[in-house]
Amino acid sequence: MVEGLLQGRGAVVTGAAQGIGLAIARVFCAQGARVVIGDRDADAARAAADTLTAEGGTAVAAGCDVTVPEDVDALVRTCVDAFGALDVFVNNAGITRDATLRKMSLDDFEAVVDVHLKGTWLGLRAASLVMREQGHGAIVNISSLSGKIGLPGQTNYSAAKAGIVGMTKAAAKELGHLGVRVNAVQPGLIRTPMTEAMRPDIWEAKEREVPLQRAGEPSEVANAVLFLASDLSSYITGSVVEVTGGRGM
């Protein structure tokens, strides 16, 4: 891998205290970025930032509920104040509240849509206001394979993740002439604490659906995000990169 792809750039990753978000932040730090770890769990965010700093990276933590506009605005200001610019913003924060249509509550539907769709919109808006003044920037939104093919028990999650794709394309058309690129990544079956909590038989069945015959690793999603955040993708905007091992194609 080419080194220093994000050297000296200021980056924000939401939901970065663990899982895919932490993997993204780690790859960014390894590539020279200075990263703000945003997470609703402020203590976990600080622990993640301390870990990345101990590994030789530059990272600071910020508590942030992505559904609260003031929190998201403060997250952006943290990056600008600490590092002098906001070059990359990754909308990664997410939750699940899976249930069938018959059993899903309105609260569970709204909670998932709020975090994923509203949260991504708030991050996109706040980041773009800074980036358009700078004349450059890269925003990466984390969608999901569920948003492409739909999955049973995830009418809330599938709808929100599909909405992120439409939002990404609309924003890319609005912001392209200002030097701001907006892209999305759709992970498939990725090995995280959440997915590994599945029953072994269900996990094995899902792996068999993947042409590469295995689950992906968080670092493999992070590498795709790195590509879209860096100048390697300088002529790419409004695109959706699938990191699925071929599942759902």
Automatic annotation (TrEMBL):
Pfam family for this entry, one: adh_short_C2
The coiled-coil segments of this chain are: none
Top-level taxon of the source organism = Bacteria
* Ketoreductase domain: residues covered: 10-193
Question: Gene3D superfamilies attached here?
Answer: NAD(P)-binding Rossmann-like Domain
Q: Which InterPro entries match?
A: KR_dom, NAD(P)-bd_dom_sf, Sc_DH/Rdtase_CS, SDR, SDR_fam
Q: Which family does it belong to?
A: Belongs to the short-chain dehydrogenases/reductases (SDR) family.
Instruction: Please name the PANTHER family in this protein's record.
Output: 3-OXOACYL-(ACYL-CARRIER-PROTEIN) REDUCTASE, 3-OXOACYL-[ACYL-CARRIER-PROTEIN] REDUCTASE FABG
Supply the name of the protein: 3-oxoacyl-ACP reductase FabG
* Organism in which the protein naturally occurs: Yinghuangia aomiensis
Identify the gene encoding this protein.
Answer: fabG_6
